[in-house]
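Example record for the data management plan.
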Amino acid sequence: MANEWQRMSEILLRALSTASQNMAFDYVETIAAFRSDAGLQAKIIRQTDGHCCEWCNEMAGTYDYPAPRDVYRRHDNCGCTVEYVTGKYRQNVHTRRAYQARFSQDESQEYRKVIKGAKKDFVVPRSAEDKEIKANRITTYEDPVYVSEEAVIGPKALHNINMRTRGAIREWGMKDPEKLTIVILSNDELSGAFGLYDCVTDTVYYAQDIGNDAAMKAITGAVDVTERHEMWHREQAQRYMASGREITEETRAQYLQDLRASCKKIIDRLGIDEYNVSRISRYAYDMYRAEKFDEVEAEFKVFGLKGNENGAEELSREDIGT
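Corresponding structural encoding:
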C-alpha cells in the first residue's frame, strides 16, 4: 500500500510540474520579442531526452523566432527541453534558467533541417533538350528553396549554398533577392554542369556536389565559384531589363544574342582576347572559342585575369556601360 501511495504521489507531482512548466512559455515569448525587437536574432531550440513520443520527435529542431506556439508545449511527464537562444545567451523556456553557453561549430550555425514540403514541376532549359524535373519546397527556408526528388543534400551543405548565393546578391546590389528560386538537382539531372541560371523564371539550378566544400575548392580553387558565377548571370539579366527590354521564353534567344554582343564589347575594352583569355580559366577559354562571351564575362568577374593585380575589380560599372 505504501509503495502504491508513493507511486501515485510521484505521478501527481510530475503532472503538476508539467502543468506549471507549460504556463512559462508566455513569459519567454515576451522576453524573446523584446530581444528580437532590439535587433538580437533569436532562436528557439527544442531537444528530446531520447525517450520521447512521435509528436515530440516531430517538434524537435531549431526555429527562427517567432516559433509556432506548439514548439513550447510539453505533455504530461515530457522530458523535452525548450531553450530560447540569442548568441551565447540561453534560457530554458520552462525553468527560466539562463546561462552563457559554449557552442560547437555545427550548433552555432544552427543549420536548418531539410524538411520537404509541397512538390513543384520545373523545366531546366538545356541547349540540347529541356529537362523536366520534380522538386520539393524546403519548408524551413522562408525564401523559395527546392530540392529535386533525385538529389541528396544535408542541412549544412544546403545552408552554405543558400548563404553564398545570397551573399553574391548582396555583394553586387541586385534587385528583388527574395524572388530568386534556388533548386538543388542531382549531378545527373544537371548533366555534369555545376550550375545554371534561368533568366526567364529567375531560377538558379545547382548540382548537389557544390555543397561539398572540399571537392569544390580542389576543383575550382574556392568554395563559392559556382554561386558567384551564376549570380553574375542574374546581374546580366537585370542589367538588360533595366534598359526597358523584357526577357520571356519567346525572347530568350534574342536576349542571349544581344547579351553576348554586349559582353564582347566589354571584354574587348578590358583587353581580353584569344591569346590571354586562358589566364582567366580554361572554361573562359573554351567559351571564348564558342563565342559565348556572357560566360567569359562571368568567369572574369569571379576570377579576374591571372597575373593582374586588380583582378575582377577591373570590371566596373563604367566597363559595362551602366
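Summary line stored alongside the record: The longest helix spans residues 2-22.
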